[in-house]
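Thread: Modeling a multi-component assembly for a lab meeting

Hi all, long-time lurker, first post. My supervisor asked me to bring a structural picture of a complex we are working on to next week's group meeting, and I have zero experience with this. I have the sequence lines for every component (957 residues in total). Could someone generate the structure of the whole assembly? Inputs are pasted exactly as I received them:
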Amino acid sequence: MLLLRTVLHLAALLALPPLLLGVVNRTKSIFAGRVGPPLLQPYLDLAKLLRKGAVYSRTTTWVFRAGPIVGLAAVASAGLLLSMGGAPAALSFAGDFVLFAYLLGLARFATALAALDTGSAFEGMGAAREVTFASLAEPALFLCLLVLARATGTLSLSGMLGPALPGAWGSAGPALLLAAIAVFVIALAENSRIPVDDPNTHLELTMIHEVMVLDHGGPDLAFILYGASLKLFLFGAILSRLVLGRGDGALASEALFFLGVLCFAVGVGVVESVMARLRIVRVPQLLVGASVLSVFALVLLLR
Amino acid sequence: MTLVPVLGAIALPAASGLAAAALRARPAAGQALACAALCAGAALGVAAAGTVLLGGELSAPALGLRLDALSAIFLLPICAVSALGAVYGLGYYPQAEHGPRAVRLQLFYGLATGGMVLLVVAGHAVVFLVGWEVMALSGFLLVHTDHERAEVQRAALVYLAATHVGTLALFALFALLRQAAGSFDFAAMQGLPGAGRLAASAFALALLGFGVKAGLMPLHFWLPGAHAAAPSHVSAVMSGVLIKTGIYGLLRVTGLFAAPPATWGTALLLLGGASAVLGVAFALAQHDLKRLLAYHSVENIGIIALGTGLALLGRSRGEPGLVVLGLGGATLHVVNHALFKSLLFLGAGAVQHATGTRELDLLGGLARPMRATAVLFLVGAAAISGLPPLNGFVSEWLVYMGFLSALERGGGDLLAFAALGVPALALVGGLAAACFVKVVGVVFLGTPRSAHPRAAHEAPRTMLVPMAILAAACAAIGLAPAAALPALVRAAAAWSRLPPELLDGAAARAGAGASRVSVAAAALLVATAGLVLLRRRLGAPRAPDVETWGCAFSGPLPRAQYTGSSFAELLVRRFSWAIFPRGAAPRLGGAFPARAAFHTEVPDTVLDLALAPAARGFRWLAARAHLLFLRRIQFQVLLVLATLLAILAWGFGW
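Re: Modeling a multi-component assembly
Sure thing. I ran the full set together rather than chain by chain. Output:
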């Protein structure tokens, strides 16, 4: 039974992420009064890209071609550590969240190097911004996870997002609420969404993530887009479990979990519709703000 | 067990340079013989360390030698890195080409190795100090190799001054310990009380003496200059293992005390945190490849100090879990840093060898002419950034676990606040990754930024093979960390004197985690391999045949690429409270601005902005004093007499 559930979770992890992008886009189009693309459009885009050929610049080496592959593999491996719907993850041990964060770091490392391999000033700019903001987001993420670890008394992601969570909301509600807000901000930053980065921008000078992948095409771009949606799903899953951690009936909590992930996508879409992108010099302040929030939460728990 | 391998590991490297000196007429044979002798000694040392790590202890009180698990874990990288560096030197610094200079280098390289081996196997303070001074002085002569250049002279002099300040503190330290224990033998000093003034001053002296060698912030000031000025395989040995002798000394001396007070651990946590964060921040601001790597040593020594501080806190609070995780993380990071940092320095040497420059912003695009070097350097860069599935991740994870186990205290326990080390380590990890994206990207990727990298050639095999061995070791520890744990637990037991059964619980927990890390690493490799196959199935990639997209601007300009300085600018600006770059942007005005140049340099805040001005002030003061008092010998005698009287008065009064 448990094995079946784990297999189903892994299948959901691999199949659902592009749907989240569809939900985000649909939310934005509703806000803008448009009909918008179909919900399943991202799947069609991926299928189209996978059938296309790719073009490579003369400047690039094997690093450029390895970037999308390593990036996707690292994010997918991080998915193995994530608990969904309260069930233990495929792989779980004390301290696994460090591995989770560093696997996301590996994906970023590979993407940024691939960007620098093109020798383009724009892509160098994007890579510099990406690693800068990531190194500020990293401490904030770890602080949030510390809050979770302290509140639930466990050191593994499966434990933090598992059965101990409802009790923790009872005993440490305010701290968890602060942490949840901080995780949402970090999720927006890590996934290059507004207010940190605008995925729809058309001006290379203002882009962060998008400009790093300008020169990728075909299956390579498909890997990158799919990896990005997978990462969005991972953060959605953390947040969904963290906020809706109450369900305990097996089927009900599963349904609640996936509903929560979709709500996260709607939330991202709403933020993207009602806010403008921050000026780049303001982004560090946002991330430091998220850190400060989670430090408050941690101090609440440690006193 | 006999001590013969240990004696061989000291004597063979120390004497290895004589072969090069004797065979001056046939330089290639002389250097090969010297290298072979050093490697043979190193192999003996590795064998001795291996037997001790598998259980057992060697000791010869008559000779003042003792090899326990803590020594063995330092002996291992000392022998391995020195031997690989010597092999690398065959291609990088051939005696046939450099003549007497290479002979001197070979001589002092062997002596430094012998000194390091001697000091980690010393069981007696005097033997320890002999090894220490041999190492320190040959280190100075090694840095001084290219002595015509002014920057080399300055770096070597600063190193000599710094190391002697450290040695002075160590003389005082061991004199104090001798006074308390009645003997210079470490075995007799074991179990000194951790409370009281004597222990406090001993710890302060140890922190000064060993901290200078290790390069803990703010005592790191000698390190970037010396490591950049030395030939690259010497930098690899200095940065990879020589500075670790400072950590070894700190561990050896703190291990002598029973129940060290909590302030010791706290002090190391604070110093380690500052070194780690500021070390990587300074590294980001550098544009000399080897100086940048040297600042990363400060960062990694900080991480090691964080682990050591946790272990000390664990001993003072009676928490075996903290001791295992803290000391295990620290010692594994000692080994790991020795592996990847020497790999990176050897890679930097290959780049310098091929292009003739270390200036980041003159390089670029080296992944094409130097394919193998690029791959190996990339492995080292990923490892030092702590990325899975390599070894840097494992030791950082152990230190993380140490901090996290502090989180399991009850409410109100101050120890729980040690968990704030977690976000600090996360910041360091993020910054290190940013810095190595910059290094790899600017040196190896993109297009050449000047004529230097255009003429580059791949390194010879004698240089590539040592790098490949180091990279393989990085991958092996990263993929199977659980295999290294028993040795770490033995070292923790030898250091803390806690019975092994107390350490077993935490060790088993860490071991279970470590084997899961291997599973995740395997999953990552399988996923990567699967995606590579899938990518192949989707159609063979076309040969590159277009230019990079430049907003419809065809014809890419190498000069328009992002440089190392521009890449790091956003982050360096965050640290403007600690880093003060010099240089002003030129003013451009009018419709046809004149030709302009822009130049920046990043002084070391401690050396260039504090110590050097202080030394200048001191010299000025001394000159004034000279004018006033010292022009006549009578005044000088008077001064001596007055000093003597003052000391006598102070001595009687006290």
